[in-house]
Amino acid sequence: PPSSSVNLYASLFVQNHNSGFTSPITSTHIKQWSYLTLHNPGTTSATATIKVYSKTGSSRSFTKTIASHGIWFAKNDSDWNVVDSNIGTVGWVEVNSTAPLVGINRVSIGGESGTSHHYWTDYPMDFLGSKALYSAYYLKDHPSGYWESGVVQRSYIHIANPSASSATVTIKIRK
After folding, report:
1. Beta carbons of 67 and 45 less than 8 angstroms apart
2. Where does the pLDDT of residue 98 fall: very low under 50, low under 70, confident under 90, or very high at 90 and above?
């Protein structure tokens, strides 16, 4: 389960990014999207600074106030929706808050005109410097089952070490 923290991290940000699938209805490429959900389980409001990084390291940040026991959802949020025009379509996200939050990064595909919107999976956001990272799925040549026959899904793990010192990593894959 996700932990609450004043510093959260999502290792994947996609917005209007090609999924590799083609719509059978319109024959256009189907896009991928990330939507954060931040929940404040505390009894005081939290001010969260959300910083989205591009794959080249440039960034854009904005601030949201989340009431006690309240949530903020990125979908249809004006600050979130303009990120791709400033950042690009792939990157990662950091959240720094005045009170501990719990975060989820929902990655979905589709939703463009004429294309069904499918929620792909939810990833718990990790806290910065976490020694226990988690991914909901590990896929290796798994049939996609969505639009095209013969298309398979694969997982690729990317780990960044923000520290100046080396780190030893143990990866466990469970079935």
Report:
1. yes
2. very high
